[in-house]
Design brief:
two-stranded antiparallel ribbon, Methane Monooxygenase Hydroxylase, Chain G, domain 1, 237 residues, single chain, mainly alpha
């Protein structure tokens, strides 16, 4: 079947629907990873780790479908405007961000064995960080699903908040080390959790930037102070 703008739109819609389902899957996976740490639940951690196979398979399926769609456009000389092509690029990039968040969920779950046999649990500062990251990912998924640029900007503004929560957790851990109320192995595990959590937030920010790019064609340039939106010049039709 020859690719037309209408058939491209239909196939693009299916790709987005598949990616929205993947985003919900990754959110559930990350939530379960944190819960396994909260409860020192080794069986729960194992379930998270096994779920990564599904995330990886869907990631590959979506990427292959996107490549096939773009190949069909080229082979059939289908004339498209910039907007649907931006949407396809956004889907490919967000797909990669979700796969990386899934990897971070596995990394968090792999910390659980260190907790076995210990009475120590994640400090309250760590629970606040985890709850914040879960909320950021939930908002990120919503802004992508709804193409909501304002919510995407809200996600971007949470970068500094997550960073502050991470600092609070690290400071708490360091004080406990000074007080000798936590073992070095456990302190290292909690510091790694803080790092993985910040990484998830970074991937969320990348997705939020893609949502803004999708709606406006604006890209982000990193400056010493922050990120700034840069409008791209219009392309010739």
């Amino acid at each position: 079947m020859t690719t037309t703008p209408e058939s491209f739109k239909r196939r693009l819609g299916q790709l987005k629907a598949d990616l929205v389902q993947q985003s919900e899957r990754v959110l559930a996976m990350l939530s379960a990873a944190y819960e396994s740490v909260f409860d020192a639940d080794n069986e729960g951690a194992e379930r998270v780790i096994k779920q990564d196979d599904v995330i990886d398979r869907v990631d590959v399926d979506i990427e292959r479908a996107a490549v096939t769609l773009l190949t069909d456009v080229a082979n059939d000389a289908c004339s498209l405007s910039a907007e649907p092509l931006r949407e396809l690029l956004t889907i490919v990039k967000v797909n990669n961000e979700l796969e990386r968040i899934g990897d971070r969920a596995v990394s968090i779950a792999l910390l659980v064995p260190v907790l076995e046999g210990s009475n120590e649990r994640l400090p309250d500062t760590g629970r606040v960080l985890a709850s914040s990251v879960i909320g950021v990912l939930r908002d990120t998924n919503r802004c992508f699903d709804r193409a909501d640029r304002e919510l995407a900007r809200v996600v971007l503004r949470t970068e500094h908040t997550v960073e502050e929560f991470k600092k609070a957790l690290v400071a708490d851990i360091q004080q406990r080390l000074v007080d000798r109320s936590i073992s070095p192995d456990l302190a290292l595990a909690f510091q790694q959790l803080a790092t993985y959590s910040e990484s998830v937030a970074d991937h969320c920010s990348n997705t939020a930037r893609q949502v803004i790019y999708l709606g406006t064609g604006a890209v982000f340039r990193h400056t010493d102070a922050d990120w700034e939106e840069v409008e791209l010049p219009p392309t010739d039709s």
